[in-house]
Amino acid sequence: MKKLHNKSQEVFDFIARVPKGKVTTYGTIAERLKTSARAVGTILHNNPDPQKYPCHRVVRSDGSLATGYAFGGKQEQMKKLKEEGVVFKHGKVVL
Asked: What pTM value is reported for the model?
């Protein structure tokens, strides 16, 4: 695996700690790691190992899913989250 940029590794380490059945937001990650939510999204879009770094557990601050989920699209992300027990209402994660 190629060496990750320091901030990228911080983002991946953060999401690796999000437990199954839970989500976090781009904004929460950005705030904790002193970066922008957009930068977090860009980093996650280039996830080298979605099994190790469960980027499907990252959603927008209003609970909606990003349209550009890189590993099968929005519907695949929703499917994965529902399989883990995440609750949706009106197409958004209940935060």
From this structure: 0.92
Active-site entry in 29, 55, 58, 93: 55
Taking the C-alpha atoms of 45, 31, 20 and 17 in order, what is their torsion angle to the nearest 10 degrees? 90
pLDDT in tens, the chain (95 residues): 445 578 999 999 999 999 999 999 999 999 999 999 999 999 999 999 999 999 999 999 999 999 889 999 999 999 999 999 999 999 999 98
Within a domain: 82: yes
Q: Is residue 27 part of a domain?
A: yes
Q: Is residue 1 part of a domain?
A: no
Cβ–Cβ < 8 Å for 14, 54: no
Q: Which residue range is the domain that position 23 belongs to?
A: 6-93
55 catalytic, yes or no? yes
Domain count, the chain: 1
